[in-house]
Each structure stands twice: as structure tokens, then as C-alpha cells.
Amino acid sequence: MQNPRLASRYAKSLLDLAVEQHSLDDTLKDVQLLDSICRGSRDFENMLRSPVIKADKKQQIISAVLGAGIGALTQAFVTLLVNKGREAYLPEIAAAFISQYKELKRIRTVRLTTAVPVSDSVREAIRARVAAGMPDNTVELTAGVNPDLIGGFVLEMEDRLFDASIRKELNDIKSQFLKNTYVSELR
User: Fold this and answer.
1) First vs last Cα of the chain: how many Å apart?
2) Is residue 185, in this structure, part of any structural domain at all?
3) Which residues lie below 8 Å from residue 33, measured CB to CB, with a gap of 6+?
4) 117-169 residue pLDDT tens
5) DSSP string of 60-96?
6) Which end of the chain, N or C, is less packed with Cβ atoms under 10 Å?
């Protein structure tokens, strides 16, 4: 049950309120906590989406899970979502809020995938190299491991992909052999 337009609008409202009340960073921490809870617990997400559980019970469960860990603005926002029957969209709203925050603060997320884990110094060197190409932005680097790459790396940023993996090179060579372009030029 995805509704990106609804999630974006609620996230924008929360972002605007947080900016207005000068609590943007605190609200971001709260939303990141909500996002991690939603991602980490399938039961919590199922509870949010359940039509059987009443709104007041959902509110009690959310309050018990979060405790005093979130600020007043975020607590009021979650209460509003539950009262409006929009709590099922909480994971989407949290993701949209984080995305809009990053856009507001000009933070670009870059994903580095390698065949083996890389050291912190290599990650920092790659992050600095990417950041040099985007002087007005802050670069946030996340690293992952995919042994299928065999070697090299894949760098993803927004809609761009730089694939310098051995797997890609081998696939390119394989496609050249399958096309057999050299034999057709000899005839």
C-alpha cells in the first residue's frame, strides 16, 4: 500500500513545522528512529497496517515502543497520523522526510559497492574525491559488499552509475564474443 504523494505531503508538513520551530535536527533524529524501528520490525509495520487494531491501541503501542525517546513535535505528528488513520504510511513518510531533509541540507548519498570490505581510509578517499566534484554539497558515503563483482567497485549516486567492476568487464568481453563482430568484418 504505497502512496508516495501522501507520504511526500505529510513529510513536507513535518519538515516545515520543524524548520519553523527550530527543531529540524531533533526531528530528524526522531524520524530516523521511527524509520529504523519500521525497517527492523516486521511486526511493528504489520501492527501499523492492521485494520483490526483500533487507533487508541495503536497509539498506546507506539508510545510504549518509542517511550520518551522522541520530541513533542514528532509525538504530536505521530498522534495526528493515528487519529487521521494514516499510520500505515508511517514508514513511507519517514523515508520521505529523510529524503526531503537531505535535499534541504544539500546532502548527496553515494553508494559504494565492492567485492571485499574496504578500509575507512579508502572510503574517505573516495568520498573526498566525489565531494570535490560537488563543491556545494555534502557527500554521505555508504559502503556495501557484493562478492559477485569479483573485483573493482560500483559507485551509485542518484541517477548515475559508475561500474568499474571485473564482472562488468567480463560481461562486456562475453558479449563481444557472442556478437562475433571481428569474424563478420573479415568476410
Assistant:
1) 58
2) no
3) 66, 69, 70
4) 999 999 999 999 999 999 899 999 999 999 999 999 999 998 899 999 999 99
5) HHHHHHHTT-S-HHHHHHHHHHHHHT-GGGHHHHHHH
6) C
pLDDT tens digits, 43-96: 999 999 999 999 999 999 999 998 888 999 999 999 999 999 999 999 999 999
Regarding whether 155 and 67 lie in a shared domain, the answer is no
**Contact present, 31 and 102 (Cβ < 8 Å):** no
Structural contact between residues 140 and 154, judged by C-beta atoms closer than 8 angstroms: no
Task: Note the pTM of the prediction, 2 decimals.
Answer: 0.83
Q: How far apart are CA 36 and CA 38, in angstroms?
A: 5
- Residue 177: the pLDDT is 80
Q: What letter represents residue 134's amino acid?
A: M
